[in-house]
Write a structure and sequence with these properties.
By secondary structure, the protein is of the alpha/beta class. Helices cover 55% and strands 15% of the residues. The chain has one domain: 3-Layer(aba) Sandwich (Rossmann fold), CATH 3.40.50. Helix 2 packs across helix 5.
């Protein structure tokens, strides 16, 4: 693909979204930003990567407090940094990386952050049974523990997304260009379908 391609991927926990993103990046020869984004945000802001990692999307957020600018404050080298500032820092990193060329962004409301750019926004889901099996095998935990973890992770991802997008509704099909059940085709098949979708979408724009 000669044209710049920006793909954003939202995902249910245990759906294999990160693996799909990695497969897409490998097939297209473009970078995938997930944990790397934390380092990029830290370098730009002067905050430590560990500090940003601790306050990442996986922690529980207080929705009303964040919307009103009264969310949690985090200590960094004696200074207070609130949730909104941390989101701003990561958003700037996402936009900066997207301006540099083709890329795949995983999570962090990247579809919303890049809403004024030409992107293909994808949401990856899977039935709870498939996700439970994947998480249990990957982490070496019981199916019951896996279900509890899945529910917790999905809840925090939804809260993060809905909070900072002011209610765009995480996982709702109308917010994305493509929603796909990864259990139907597997990781490789899902990544290939997304690539084909992107290619067809680009052809229609010509």
């Amino acid at each position: 693909m000669e044209k710049r391609i920006i793909i954003t991927i939202g995902r249910q926990f245990g759906s294999g979204g990160k693996q799909v993103a990695s497969a897409i990046g490998e097939r297209l020869g473009i970078p995938v930003y997930d944990q790397e984004l934390i380092v990029s945000a830290a370098n730009k802001s002067g905050l430590s990567p560990e500090f940003i990692r601790q306050s990442d999307e996986h922690r529980h957020l207080s929705g009303l407090g964040g919307i009103l600018g009264l969310g949690r404050f985090w200590h960094n080298a004696g200074n207070l940094v609130d949730d909104n500032e941390l989101f701003r820092i990561q958003s700037e990193a996402i936009r900066d990386l997207a301006s540099q060329g083709s890329a795949v962004f995983v999570g962090r409301a990247s579809d919303y952050v890049l809403r004024d750019m030409d992107t293909v926004d994808v949401f990856i889901c899977a039935p709870i049974e498939a996700r439970t099996q994947r998480v249990a095998e990957r982490l070496g935990i019981s199916p019951e523990e896996a279900v509890t973890l899945i529910e917790k992770k999905d809840k925090t991802r939804k809260e993060y997304y809905d909070l900072f997008t002011l209610g765009d509704n995480w996982g709702v099909a109308s917010n994305y260009d493509l929603c796909i059940d990864s259990s139907a085709l597997g990781i490789e098949g899902t990544s290939e379908l997304i690539i084909q979708f992107v290619r067809q979408a680009e052809l229609r724009k010509m």
